[in-house]
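# step 3/5: fold
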Amino acid sequence: MSVPQSDPQPLPAGCEPACRGCRHRTLTAAASYAQKTGYLARALLRWSQVLQPVRPAPADRRLGYRDRVTLHARHTAADGWRFGLMRRDELIAIHDCPVHSARVNGLVGLLRRTLPEHSRLPLAFVHVAGGQATLIVKAHSYATPDLDALCAALPDSGIDGLWVHCHPAAGRKLFARSGWHLAWGEPVSRDPAGLTHGPAAFQQLLPELHCDSVTLARAHLAPAPGVAVLDLYCGIGATLREWSDAGAAALGIELAGGAVDSARRNAPQATVLRGTCGQRLPQVREWWGAAGSGARVCYVNPPRSGLEADVLDAIANELRPDRLAYLSCSAGTLGRDLTALEHAGYAVDAIVPFDFFPGTHHVECLALVARQDARHAY
């Protein structure tokens, strides 16, 4: 897949000039890739010999791809409901964002037309995850009739389920365990890969590129009968299903309860435990020790902060998998963790960047790592 050499419309029509949600929105595709390539060359200089070119998004998917989003909600008598991003104390409305999917933009339009005023519905945020939409209300309860007009319009919206999450303390932490109410539709949706997910599940935004990254990880890890795959931060089970379908024994760890439920549905042959990866290390050690004499490999997809210190230490110095595939959204923490793995006797075979977030400064990297004394195993 080649990098586009020109882009006649770097700033798409409908893009709010005050919005800073996509830092590369004024750049051509080629200029954006050049900046990302330069950043990775600096951040991952130690591995320049194995750092591959950025794999770009399909040309027709650079816009309209964002189907998972959280928007602030504000209401005034003059403007009604407005949805967007906060800059200091100001809300920057993005009602027709060219990066958002048609489903997200359509829902925003419905909300603006149908929701009652703030005094009746103290809405703070709107969260969309694929076919599941959640209204996060800063109150202990809400009046069902206030959503009648919205619910009546949802059957043709592409939304499968509408939730109201009553969370009086909603702020930096969007979700609490209680206060969830299914206001309309179905409680789960299916993504393009056929995976089920709930309203708070994390999903990769470009399934095409994510599928490419999983294909590379699978070729490196070589899951098969007799192989044990430890999958940390497993989300809704997209990769767990890959390992299980190949006949490998698979153990997934995930913190979010809704994601754990989805992972158990999507990969029923795998074992899925809820908790932080650090909290579940005792169970990981027990499972790892009972996994048999075949290859033991690991797949990790941590948050931006990278692997927790105790988890990294356990992988590098105790569990010592034969091979590791590490999908990272931060080149900085990836470099930190790869350095620790190299000090423990691992080698980085390849780092493959993916443009999972076109128009932004973000870039995802897949690192393929192997224990140097176990290369005979593959």
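# step 4/5: annotate
The longest strand covers residues 68-76.
# step 5/5: archive (pending)
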